[in-house]
Amino acid sequence: MSIDALLTPSPHPHGLPDFSAFEDADFRPAFDRAIAAHRAEVERIAGDPVPPTFVNTIEALERSGRELARVSGVFFNLIGSDANPVRKQVATEVASLLTEHENSIALHPQLFARVAAVYAARHELGLDEPALRLLEKRYRASVRRGAQLDADGQAQMREISARLAVLTTEFSQLVLDDSNAAALLVDDAEELEGLGDSAIAAAAAAAEAAGHSGRYLLPLDLPTSQSALAALQRKDVRQRLLDAAAGRGARGNEFDTRAHVLEIARLRARRAELLGYRDHAHYVIEDETAPDVDTVAELLGRLTAAASLAGGRELTRLTALSGDPMDAADVTYWLAQEQKSGSETNLDDFADYCELDTVLTKGVFYAAARLYRLRFTERHDLPTYHPDVRVWEVFDEHGTAIGLYLGDYFARPSKRGGAWMNNFVDQSTLLGDTPVIVNVLNVTKPVGDAPCLLSVDELTTLFHEFGHALHGLLSTVRYPSQSGTSVPRDFVEFPSQVNEMWALHPEVLANYAVHHKTGEPIPAELAAAARAAGQEVSAHSTLEYLAASVLDLAWHRLTAERADAITDVEAFEAQALRDAGLGLELIPPRYRSTYFNHIFGGGYSAGYYSYIWSEVLDADTEQWFLDGGGLRRERGARFADAVLSKGDSVDPIAAHRDMLGREPRIEPLLRRRGLLPA
Q1: Rounded CA separation 113/107 (Å)
Q2: Which of 465, 493, 500, 615 is catalytic?
Q3: Cβ distance 621 to 498 under 8 Å?
Q4: In this structure, is residue 370 part of a structural domain?
């Protein structure tokens, strides 16, 4: 084993890491060596006696740090998808090291002077749009890290950012540990009445693996509302499951995150104040596609008003259907019952036509072939980081290999909750790199030879995450920092949400939906019922999401003085929801503060609104595809050229506007979510 395998170019196609050539003990020394090497490169750029130019300063910085990019690409993928105690310890150790290294670059006085000189002359340099955006972003990033502050201000910025790096890393680890510890353990299969046989078998296998032979374990999904709530027939079991999910991080045990939440909010507010911003939300949204914080708040308020009316009608119907008073643990269940009662077709049978491997090859890859002329060839000869991971090489319409796609679909205790896309290698023509992309999901792994059958939600998630993968695979940019999904946070969800439209599209569905046992095609009435169900977005789901978005903004619109005064996480959360008209006992937020990993452990702080912001573009673009005939190469080529290939090399909103030939409209979103007035 050698740290060289982490730092040097891989011998495998497209730079796929040689996972068998290193071990966990190599990560820390590899980071140390890579940071030192990058620091030396930066010093050479900063000390260059030749006057600063775009090439010898800005482009040189893009070329630097390749060793650090390699080890980071491997490690930060593994810490999310396959954590263990050694990796967790390394993550805690390197969080502050990496932050200090990034600060040392952004705040390097000689380097910043060179960057600022090039920036000052930017309009006389004849730069194309990608180069100009790169220059402006590099300059702005240094300023936003404190390059224009005095020595005391920079020292405070370093201290704050280092502490935040540790806190956010610890928060994610605590949420994972508490989610594993709080998984619902039941004694008898009768308690799981309503779940399918495969789900019960998986619960038995999970309990066995956790040392509870003869019992049943339901692992927790990341959101508050658990997917099993839609099927569990026993009210008491539903309540226990919801309580387990909603209590994470707030039980006073070793996994309690409340102190982390408070300190993170205070430090972010303090950092914003140092930089001259009112609060962290203003600091974040200045760098996004949304015009300002007030515009975001106005959108959330408008949607809340409409969703609250729809939610009231929805809860009235559900209460009448159940015949009993409703609790929060009942809403998801009775939504599922209402959907069944409103259809003559039993949607429980849909999963029998939705086997994972068939959906991948004849659904996900089929749509990509029709739209973008991509071809996927599975590679069994390439190394992976876990036995469950699969690898495909991706070819374009000319037969040229453009990258690798990895699929890591099954849940395990070492994997954090949710689903995501990440890069092992960023595409860049400057560096000659082709992309290596991974999709990570948390689908329950079947037991034995049983097939993996997807629910409608899991199917949609698979297509969603593959939309992110397409954004990375089809990138054709010069600079690595502009590659693929390296776009503003409130634009990044747009391509993935667009790709969801193909999950139940008639042509795609007809291609993959065959019975996993008989091979018979899906009955027309079941296909129609699945499409109808997939097009429905409950008011409950919308209100859950809006509540989480409001919570995110509430924490991050705190001034430094106000943040210092907050001492009770639950009380602050409850008041913020009441103030927004979302203090709904029956509809808790999608994430409560104590396990809101997107904003306290990930990169979505003051940015969780991004999903609905992107959905405005997505709903309008879906209609654009349908108006053009649906699954047609001409529209796919235009979408790839305008959006998927460009990354952050152009203004993404302007590129989207040019593609549509007009400004985006909000009406398709309101129509999709059932929020237009009757």
Answers
A1: 10
A2: 465
A3: yes
A4: yes
Tell me the per-residue pLDDT of 563-593, one tens digit each, with 9 for 90 and over: 999 999 999 999 999 999 999 999 999 999 9
Please tell me whether residues 115 and 21 are part of one structural domain: yes
Is the dihedral angle over the CA atoms 499, 495, 410, 244 positive or is it negative?
Answer: negative
Residue 14, Ramachandran bin (φ over 0: left; ψ between -120 and 50: alpha; else beta): left
Are 202 and 125 in the same domain?
no
Please report whether residue 559 resides in a domain.
no
Range of the domain at 48: 4-106+108-144
Residue partners of 67: CB distance under 8 A and separation at least 6? 7, 8, 33, 34, 37, 38
- Are 116 and 139 in contact by the 8 Å Cβ rule? The answer is yes
Q: Considering the chain, what is the average pLDDT of its residues?
A: 95
Give the pLDDT score at 678: 53
Any catalytic annotation for residue 100?
no
Q: What is the pTM of this model?
A: 0.92
pLDDT digits (tens, 9 = 90+) for 120-162: 999 999 999 999 999 999 999 999 999 999 999 999 999 999 9
Look at the block and give the residue holding tokens 């929805």: 314
In total, how many domains does the chain have? Answer: 3
Closest of 256, 201, 203, 209 to residue 226, by C-alpha: 203
Q: Are 317 and 335 in contact (CB under 8 A)?
A: no
> Do 79 and 133 sit in the same domain of this protein?
yes
Are 180 and 170 contacting, i.e. CB atoms less than 8 angstroms apart? no
Q: Phi first, then psi: give them for residue 453, nearest 5 degrees.
A: -105, 130
Whether pLDDT at 213 is above 60? yes
In the three-class reduction of DSSP (H, G, I as helix; E, B as strand; rest coil), residue 148 is classed as: coil
Q: Are residues 473 and 523 in the same domain?
A: yes
Asked whether residue 429 is domain-assigned, the answer is yes
For residues 512 and 575, give the distance between their C-alpha atoms in angstroms, rounded to a whole number: 47
Domain boundary pick from 83, 117, 144 = 144
**Together in a domain, 85 and 220:** no
Q: For residue 421, give the 3-state DSSP assignment.
A: strand
Domain contains 604: no
Alpha helices in 383-430 (DSSP H): none
Together in a domain, 407 and 485:
yes
Residue 35 has pLDDT above 60, yes or no: yes
